[in-house]
Amino acid sequence: MALAIRERDTGRRQRLHNAVTAIGAFDVERYEALRAQNEASIRYPAAVVLEPPGAAYDAPALPDDFCVAAVDGSYIDVDRHMAAQCYLINIGTVTLTYGTHPDARLESHPRLYAQDDELVVYDEANGQSQSVEGSVLSAKRTVEETAALAALVRDLPSGTPTLALTDGSLAYIGLTAGKDPPFVVRELLEDGFVAALQELHHLARSRRLAVAGYISLPGADEVVGALRLAGCGYGVEGSRRCGAPSVGRAPCDVCVGGLRDRDVFAALLQPGQRSPVFGSSSGTVAQCYGDQAVRFFYLNAGTEIARVDLPAWVADDADLLGLTHGLILDQCRRGPGYPIALMEAHEQAVVSGGDRQRFAELVEQALQNNRLPVNTSEKSRSKRLRWL
Amino acid sequence: MAVKGKTAKAHRVGEVVSASTAAFQVHCHKLYEAPPLGSLIRCGTDGSLVYGVVANILTESLDPSRKPIARGADEDSEEAVYRSNPQLTRLLATRFDAVAVGFQDSGGLHRYLAPLPPRVHSFAYRCDEGEAREFTESLEPIAVLLGAPIASQDEVVAAFLRLASRAHPDPQAFLVRAGKELAVQLIGQSQRLNAILRRLSR
C-alpha cells in the first residue's frame, strides 16, 4: 500500500509540474479556437480562458469605509414520518460595517412552508409537478438566500462600497438544464436565482456593489480541463493520446489529469494573490443565466486556495473586481481563514439537531391546537419512545 | 421613595434574564456597561419595585459553544480590535448578578426580601444618589448582603458601603455608622470584620 501511495504521489507531482509548465506557456487564442471548435464533443469541464492563466494579481488597497453583506441558509427537509408535510428554510443574514462607524447586524429569518402550492413546483402548461424536497429544496434555499442578499443590500446606505457575499457557487445551485425538469429549472433557476442576481445587478447601478460566491476547498477542475485540452487534446476527435490516469495505464508526457484547480493555483499564487478571471464552462450557465454569466478566480486566502464566483458584470469592471478581491481577502484575514461575515451568517442560519426535534414537536402541537389529526409513522414514534 | 421620572432610558442598564427571590441576573443593553460592583439598582415598575446590589459582573460569549479567540495580534489598541471586528459587540454580552436587598410596594420601602422576584425582562435601572441615600438611611441591607449566597461576599459589602457613602452628605460619618453595624453583625469574626473595614477606609 505504501508503495502504491508513493507511486501515486510521484505521479501527482509530475502532473503538477506539467500543469505549471503548461500554464506558463498557455496560448489563449489557440486554446479558445480549439475549445470553440470542439465545444460539443468535449466531455469534461474546460474553463473559458480570457487572459494568460498563469498571471497573479495582488489585492488593491481597501476603501476607508465599506460594508460586507453575507447570507447563508439551512433547511429542515420534508419528512414523510412527520405529522404534516412541510419544510422550513432558515436564512441567516449579516451586515458588517467597517471604518468610521463600525457596526454589525446579525439576523435569522426562519420561514415555514406548508401551503399546497409551496410544497410542489407546478407546470401549469403540462399539468406536471415536482415535490420541493431534497435537491430541489436545496436549490430553493439558494434562491431564498440570494433574494435575501438583494433585500439586505437594498437597505444599506448607497454611498458605502459593499461586497455582497454568498456561500458556495454561483454557477451551480443543484439544478442542471437538460437534466432536471424544464419547469423546475425555469421557476427556481431562471425566475428565482438568476432574477435575484439581476436584482443585485440593478442595485449595483446606483452604488459601488460587488457580488460574489465564496467556495472553500473547491473541488473544481475547469482550469485543469483547459490545460488538458490545450496540452494533450484529450477528448478532441483524433487526439485521444491519454485518458484519466488509472492503474496500469501510462499517462502521456504532458498529462495533468486527476489534478484539481486548487492544486495548480497553490503552486502559482502567493498569499493574498488572485488568479486571472476565467469564464464558467457550465452549460446551465450558458443556457439559463442570460446577462448574469458567471466568471471565477482563485484566491490564496492565506491558509487555503479558495474559488470566488462572480457575475460577469462584476468581473468585467476592474474597480469591482479589485473590490471583490480586496474585501474577500480582508474578510478571510479577519475570519481568520474564512470570511468572517459568512461564518456569522452560517451561525445565524444553522439548524441544530435539537432545533429539528423542537420543530417536529411544534408542528404536532400546532395540529393538536387546531384539533387536526396528528399522524406520525410508527417508526418515528418508536424512535421517540425508545421502550425497553 | 419617589421613583417617578427615574425610569428614563438614561438610567436603564439592562433587563432581568433570570430571577429568584434572593437574587437576579441582568443582561446589560450595552456591552461593558454594567453598573460597578456594589451599586444599588432597581427593577420592576412603580408599585412592585425590587432593589438589588450588583454582586458579580461577567462578559462572555452569548453562545456558550463559541469561545472568543485572540484577535489583536496586529492591532495597535484594544479599541481597534472592536473596530476591526464589529460583530463582537453583538456576540458578546455583559451580565451581572444582583443580590435582592429590598423592595417597595404600596406599604412603602422595605429593606428585606420581596415576596416575589422581579419578572424576567423587567428593566433594570441604576439608582441615583437620592435613592441610594434614602435606601441606606437604614443599614438593614448589610445583614441581607452578609447572608447572601454569593462569591466575594465581603468585597460586595465593602463596595456597596463605599458607593453608598458618596450619596450621603457626610460620607465619613456614614462609614463610621456602617462600621458599627458591621461590628454587630460580625460579632466573633474579628478577622473578617477587619478585612471589610480596611476596604472601607480606602
Outline of the structure:
The complex is a heterodimer of chains A (388) and B (202). Chain A has 388 residues and is an alpha+beta fold. Chain A has 13 helices and 11 strands.
Features:
heterodimer; A: 388 residues; archaeoglobus fulgidus dsm 4304 fold; nine-stranded mixed sheet; two-stranded antiparallel sheet; 13 helices; 19% strand; B: 202 residues; alpha+beta; 7 helices
Q: Largest beta sheet of chain B: what is the strand line-up?
A: 1-2-5-4-3-7
The helix content of chain B, as a percent range, equals: 25-40%
Structural class of chain B: alpha+beta
Shape of chain B: globular
Strand order of the largest sheet of chain A: 1-9-10-11-8-7-2-3-4
Oligomer: heterodimer
Mean pLDDT of chain A: 89
Distance between the termini of chain B: 30 Å
The count of β-strands of chain A is 11
- Tell me the structural class of chain A: alpha+beta
Largest sheet of chain A: 9 strands, mixed
Largest interface: A-B, 13 and 13 residues
Description of the structure:
- The complex is a heterodimer of chains A (388) and B (202).
- In chain A, β3 (87-98) and β4 (103-113) form a beta hairpin.
- Chain A has 13 helices and 11 strands.
- Chain A is 41% helix and 19% strand.
- In chain A, α4 (135-154) runs parallel beside α5 (182-203).
- Chain A is an alpha+beta fold.
- With 202 residues, chain B is an alpha+beta fold.
- Chain B has one domain (9-200).
- Chain B has 7 helices and 7 strands.
- In chain B, strands 1-2-5-4-3-7 form a 6-stranded antiparallel beta barrel.
- In chain B, β5 (92-105) and β6 (108-110) form a beta hairpin.
- The longest helix of chain B has 15 residues, at 171-185.
- The mean pLDDT of chain B is 92.
